[in-house]
Amino acid sequence: MTDKQTFTYKNPVFVKHPKVRWQVIEYLLHQVLSQSLRVDEQLPSTGELCESLGVSRTAVREAIGVLVSKGMIASKQGEGSTVQPLSSWMLLDPEVLCWLRESDMATSIIEHLVEIRLIIEPEAAALASTRGTMEQFMAMAEALARMKEGENMRSPESIQGDIDFHNIILDTSGNIFLARLRDLCMVSVELIIRLTFEKVESVSTSIDNHSRLFEAIRARKPDLARSEAKRVLGKTVYDLQELNIPFRQDILQRIE
User: Fold this and answer.
1) How far apart are CA 242 and CA 25, in angstroms?
2) Do residues 81 and 159 make contact, with C-beta atoms less than 8 angstroms apart?
3) In 3-state terms, the chain is what percent helix, strand and coil (to 5)?
4) Hey, where are the domains in the chain?
5) Partner of 88 for a Cys bridge, out of 84, 136, 179, 214, CB 3.0 to 4.6 A?
6) In CATH, 4-88 is 1.10.10.10
7) Nearest-angstrom CA–CA distance, 102 and 198
8) Buried b (16+ CB within 10 A) or exposed e, 2-18
């Protein structure tokens, strides 16, 4: 575990596992997410993990069980445990999303995150414009105000305002399934901000776009809300392309 220091998961919201079990989980995450272990490769045996990490067989079995439950690893009696393809992972699980966000694989999922938001958020904004209450609009305005505080320098408060703004739109849609996509939205916004953090000059444009989206929702204009939501995400795609993160052509056509 000599290079583990460069690849740790410290978010206390997600680290809910007992210390010894978490030690094994973290080690295996490092191997999988850094792609030191690739798809279909076998994990070290239980005995090898016990010896190298200085933990019990119970801790190893429990840790592997956690990752099996997340779809990241498959384990068969007598055949060992193997790494599963990303498509098999429980990608809507908050822990899995958090682990991916902090990993070397983050840029490989950003296109998929933005695409699902392009599918979901414009329609959620249109629904919010017709179903939202004044109380929900006020909450949206308050989140936007916090986001605006980061126009010159992003802060944890302004980033949380950005996350809350998008999540309130999902809630305001009135659809309970859309509302349950908060974690996906949170991870997407946090990852995008992390990748584009140095692009301070683009923040004011992003805030203006969010403000236009809010005004369209508050004015109860669903078609306009839908197009303004696409504008917000289009700016995100542009910023990511500036960082040489590729997007498929059909995704780009959605925001034209």
Assistant:
1) 35
2) no
3) 65, 5, 30
4) 4-88, 105-254
5) 84
6) yes
7) 18
8) eeeeebebeeeebeebe
CATH dotted code for 105-254:
1.20.120.530
Supply the pTM of this predicted model. Answer: 0.84
Q: CA–CA separation, 149 vs 25, rounded Å?
A: 38
Assess contact for 162 and 193: CB atoms under 8 A.
Answer: yes
DSSP 163-187: HHHHHHHHHHTT-HHHHTTHHHHHH
134-184 pLDDT tens trace: 999 999 999 999 999 988 888 889 999 999 999 999 999 999 999 999 888
Candidates 93, 11, 21; CA nearest to 55 is 21
Distance between CA 14 and CA 98 in Å, rounded?
Answer: 8
What is the rounded CA–CA span in Å between residue 57 and residue 61?
6
Contact between 149 and 155 (Cβ < 8 Å): yes
